[in-house]
Fold these 4 entries.
Entry 1:
Amino acid sequence: MSHNSNLLHRRERLLGPNMTTFYSDPVHIVRGEGAWLWDADGNRYLDCYNNVPHVGHAHPKVVEAISAQAATLNTHTRYLHEGILDYAERLTGTMEHDLDTMIMVCTGSEANDIALRMGRAMTGKTGIICTDNTYHGNTDLVSHLSAKKTPIGGAVDWVKKVPSPDTLAPLGGSAEAQAQAFADEIQTAIDTLEAEGHGFGTLILCPFFANEGFPDLPSGFLDPTVEVVRRAGGIIIADEVQPGFGRTGRHFWGHQRIGLAPDIVTMGKPMGNGHPVAAVVTRPEIMAEFRNRFGYFNTFGGNPVSAAAAMAVLDVLAEESLVENARDTGDYALELLRQLDHPMIADVRGAGLFLGVEFARDGDTKRAAPFCAQLVDEMRNRGVLLHSVGRYYHGIKIRPPMCFDRAQADLLVETMDAALKALPV
Ligand code: PMP
């Protein structure tokens, strides 16, 4: 039995079946540095997908912050400690002034679970609206929103899913028409929730529509939606798990990029550079309503080590000008990707270091999915790690650590060019 199949066998026996792995031949990673990864045989890979090690794999400053704090104190969160407070001040300083209170948790799923419960607490209504091609996490409540997983008991009628915006097949033609069409879909969902007796409480969206395939949408796209939600007295959650922390290059948050003023912001993945830390940020009156009603406590959320890791990430982002790097290197990589010549490329788009290539076969995106899966494997075999995205997994998602540089962008695009040429169309 080969080394990898032995690990896969143990994984299945010890951790259970049906666990996600990437690539037909999964990679056994043992070390990382910056945007590079090494497998157990010493092969090097360029990590073009991983938004968890946001400021780079094993960043020495984050490692040092974690180990110094772990060597001093780590405990549950019922003691007084400055770490979480200093971080809350720093984090909320990156947002609009009324979003200035925070709960720290361990995963994006928990953050969204809390945010949805905040929405229910504020409105007294259980109805939730999300898009039909999203993922917001895996608690019992949040899993009802996920497009690609079926919760026990099947779909619930207090969640209504609206068609997600699409670059290739827009809901309503022009950007303005699509913005209105999206808002109209939300209005219909609100009316249905009200008519069915659940009432409409909360709209949750990734402001970059990351899992939906990140269609190119102008700032102001959500204005008609906000109007509809406000008229109905609803709460808006911006899930920043993917576009947050400067990923899109010109804004620190995805909601700022699209010009959305949310009531609640959730975040996770990149926040601790791999250390499990996530958060919910909201206005004080929403926080008070939630805390008074539920008295929330999270044993690990915002413990001294988590707060130190998260603070170090903000320090490195600033010290190394990584948001500016995402803008500059992202623009450079996007330009290179646009020069790729292949009959199945239907669109190349993105912002900062969040880029994508969408494929279609004879104009049909669904039929491009098998090709995309082959391309992902071909890239892996050539030492570049990325993965697929979109309704049918018919596009490539490129989302490397924020320290990604131009030489790495060159390597990514040269490798993709060679992989595209090597694959039968
Ligand atoms: N929201 C979004 C948009 C996500 O993509 C994810 C994870 N892929 C989550 C929430 C859940 O985060 P976690 O896995 O940390 O629970």
Note: The CA atoms of residues 366 and 392 lie 6 Å apart.
Entry 2:
Amino acid sequence: KNKGINEIRKVFLDFFESKDHLVRPSFSLIPQDDNSLLLINSGMAPLKPFFSGTRTPPQKRMATSQKCIRTGDIENVGKTSRHATFFEMMGNFSFGDYFKKEAIRWSWEFSKDHLQMQEDKIWASVYFEDDEAYDIWKNDIGLPEERIVRLGKEDNFWEIGVGPCGPCSELYYDRGIQFGCDDPKCQPGCDCDRFVEYWNLVFTQFNKNEEGEYTPLPNPNIDTGMGLERVACILQDVNSIFEIDGMKMILDEVCRITGVSYGADSEQDVSLRIITDHIRSVTFMITDGILPSNEGRGYVLRRLLRRASRHGKLLGIEKTFLYELMEIVVNKFHYGYPELEEKKDMIKKVILLEEQKFGETIHQGTEILNSMIEGLKNENKKELSGLQAFRLYDTYGFPLDLTKEILEEKGLTINEDHFKEQMNLQKERARAARSQNDVAGWKEDPLAALEEIPETSFIGYETLECESKIL
Ligand code: ATP
Ligand code: MG
Ligand code: MG
Ligand code: MG
């Protein structure tokens, strides 16, 4: 019998608990005390202070299954079989404790004996200079050399600017030539859907300084990440992560609501998968306390909601529907995430309100955009002006990315710099308007007035004392 996502998650956490790891539930999608990141995008991200040494970990070994959002993958979603904007990353971590040997051995043992993956379908990649990892795969594990590939920096070296960094070793599963591309040299690292990267082991063993020099860390770390949906896709032997348990129910519901059948038309399938993915992302984001807005995380949320809404329109849905779909997400995922059930009514309200807001203008906005596109064609131009894009944003609520995406579908672009200028001008206009209101003695935002009162220091007693003495 194939394992469902709840079982896979449990088997993973139990396995590493049996190897003395402290198991913790997923952290929020909102980073804590970390301004470098908008949303948590890996299992390691919320544990950064333990890796950098600014905080002491409760235990030197930990394991989690972490909720992640990767907006950088938004363009892949619906197009590949393996990318989502929201996914769960299972990970085991060592803070200066065990290193490569154990990390590799356990990844192999877990894949083979606990996930019962077909052994001869598993491949490994190592960083091309990392002979140590290569030798472990070859000699300790006994993986045939034909299934160990050496890859370059883009795939197999992890670093962000300066600081701790190191080589990676990834585990791939060969899903078969039916998922492959035409390249006769297709192998792990190829961008097609044949060799699915399901687990990444990061060996944080260096520190990179400002000069770009790498020095070995005295206590190297292990940080691994395994995509829950990808593992489920492999084990359940379905075509894509959108067809695994949990996801398939959402997909089916999208089909039911739209009356479109899955697999009938490839373009419509992309829209179906995008809606399936985005509704899951927004449900989890709102649960963690994010609300739609024009900035930061709220903007990411708005962008996902509006994008899903537009793909609904492409499939012919005129009414609001995302707020209903959310129920399936809650029903399917509350086992792992009970907070979904608790916040259900709130999530529903937030989604419906946003859908209604966008619903009022999307029709008009799309018509305006279409006529703008017509105009470009007539003038033989390829680029929409920033002012036009800004008008769509300001009047019709089209996030820039949405306009961009629609244009790209037609081989057109946008003048983004000019768009940003328009945004800044608008901000200035808003600021000027606020100070105008000051003059009239009326504030738009009553709390903003509080912020403007200079900080006061309490000097009352002293002053009074002095005064009374004088008196
Ligand atoms: P890919 O090369 O396929 O885009 P990645 O190298 O960017 O993946 P990592 O940063 O190594 O991914 O993340 C660790 C694991 O998380 C991956 O091996 C994969 O199983 C999973 N993963 C990464 N991105 C996604 C995504 N967008 N959707 C689902 N799972 C993902
Ligand atoms: Mg990626
Ligand atoms: Mg990769
Ligand atoms: Mg990777």
Note: The chain has two domains: 5-236, 255-381.
Entry 3:
Amino acid sequence: MKMLWITDDFLPHLGGSRLLYYQTIKCLPPGEVTILTKRRPGWREFDARETIPIKRGFFKKLSIHPLLNELPVYVEMMALGACRSLRLRPDVIVCGELLPTGLVGRMLSLAGGAPYLVYIHGEEVNVLKNLRGEKALAFSVLRAADAVVATSTPAHGEALRQGVRPDRLHLLTPAVDDYFFNAKPCPERARSRYGLEGKMVLLTVGRLVERKGHELVIRALPQMRREFPDLAYLIVGAGPMEEKLERVAREEGVSGAVIFAGRLSREELVECYAACDVFVMPHRELPDGDTEGAGIVFLEAAALGKPVIAGITGGTGDSVLDGETGFRVDSTSPQEIVQRASQLLRDRALARRMGEAGRRGVLRERRWEDRAQELRRICLDMVRRKSSESTIRRHR
Ligand code: GDD
């Protein structure tokens, strides 16, 4: 089976959905997938190292009028997609997003006959619901798809509400890179690198963007430090909020206790997970609907046996079993964060139990290998269905 996988963004630009596609593709038989995506800083070196064939475009947006800004992306993606389709004759087109990718996939499918599958994660559906024109287009792409893969329960529910046929809709939650299961990290190395020896440590991993809720943890620190004076907050990741978060830490008088580690290698990252006492990311929903999808970082923390604290919105209920592997808190209230984080710092047996339950769960249910097999089965079904539909049409 040959798959043309189109996504408007991909590694080396880091992000949950990008990692999800990469890990899935890596577990599929070599040579089955060709990727069409965007150029990103570092793409040449990345593609040269990879065995997956990757074709890149510029996919550059304009900034003149909301209705025209995406036009060049559509034109270029469509042209490159058509060239690839002619050469490759794919059996299936996989689209990483509803727009622009899903629409391009749909056109290529209409032109060449290959069925198309589209991924939805949840947060983009929430944002699209507030954009009138795009919403209608995106949901028509969703309804017409030969298969839809939702990566979180809310995304799955939304697809059903939008009229996707249940037999074409599949829930494939993210998994965890085997590296996190098998690594033997040295937590002392991270502790000494960041001056955390003998301290209690809260950790967040993720892009520094508003919805991840770093600010809330910083604002909760002064109160928690009354009970745990040595408490430190380690932040791994980079992003546009860094300056603001530094300012908030100064305002709250906890600059010395908040460590910005920046973007780390996977080896360093796993040491940070191992070094923390509680993983905390009290994400929230923003006014434009942006929210957290499944939250792969909660699964990574669980793989290292750590209890986690998440927000109550979005799709993280698939990754964090409230009261079992951690807590989901109302992240509009710093009080809940203070209460749950302090509880886990105080009650070490509870923290250990939750961490162990989390690790058992991800070991049992969160392997990329299984997700890739399932995706392959869905694709093979699509191909079979399409070919029997065209046989029926021919005989009419
Ligand atoms: N090595 C390294 N270094 N990895 C990092 C760093 C870093 O500094 N910062 C973040 N990451 C990795 C995390 O380890 C994780 O694997 C990934 O980037 C972040 O993934 P998510 O927690 O899933 O967040 P996201 O906002 O990028 O992804 C979105 O889509 C996902 C897929 O549907 C979110 O909506 C997620 O909730 C969703 O799971």
Note: The chain has a mean pLDDT of 95.
Entry 4:
Amino acid sequence: MKVIAVEDYEEMSRLAAEIIQSKVQSVPNAVLGFATGGTPIGTYKQLVANAKERHLSFRMVRTVNLDEYVGISAEHPESYHSYMKKHVFEPLGILPENCHLPDGEAEDLVLECERYEKVIEQLGEVELQVLGIGQNGHIGFNEPMTPFSSKTHVVELTASTLTANASYFLNVKQPTHAITMGIGTILKSREILLLASGESKRLAVNILLEGKADEKVPATALITHPNVTIIADYPALGLK
Ligand code: GLP
């Protein structure tokens, strides 16, 4: 694992955007794996600004997302479909037919997980998978004790994750379940870029950096992957 320590959120976002963008410049039809949550928003903003300024095209890029809530429609303002459309797909001009997320409203969720896993397989290797990290060390929505070999599956969100995301659902019912790529699915990516910002991530980041793979902290699965870069700011590293 390569660890890059940066001063703050802005520096993390600038650097992450450069890494994603240089991937697209070298492989214009790359399959990119995207994450949601608060952490990558600055990266996506920077990516959009750079694309405009440097006339970069994302037209041929194909995307997969880590996860989606169960029981809310794609049009729901807090769905990950809406998040991606707003922050990434529309501003970068990625063709809708090339954007893939699990369907959290599918009638048969088990079949939907199988379908999504196949979609990822058929796209070929994910060139670069962007990840955030939960306060409990989750990646995607893979909560503690998820097997490192897991494929796309339905999860019941833990109390820690529900609390961390409660502010997005102040006036509407908060989903309790999600569909997530498995840890095994994530580990198949050629390259992984994990972003961590803020003091609330310090414990999870510290455990990850200890370098011992342990299913109690899902992010530690990354220790077994040959090409992982972590960009963490000083507060996430406990340096400030
Ligand atoms: C969410 C998402 C993850 C994300 C993590 C951290 O629940 N499912 O993909 O990385 O939790 O979120 P944030 O970046 O808002 O701290």
Note: The helical segments are 9-26, 41-54, 80-92, 109-123, 159-165, 183-187, 202-210, 234-237.
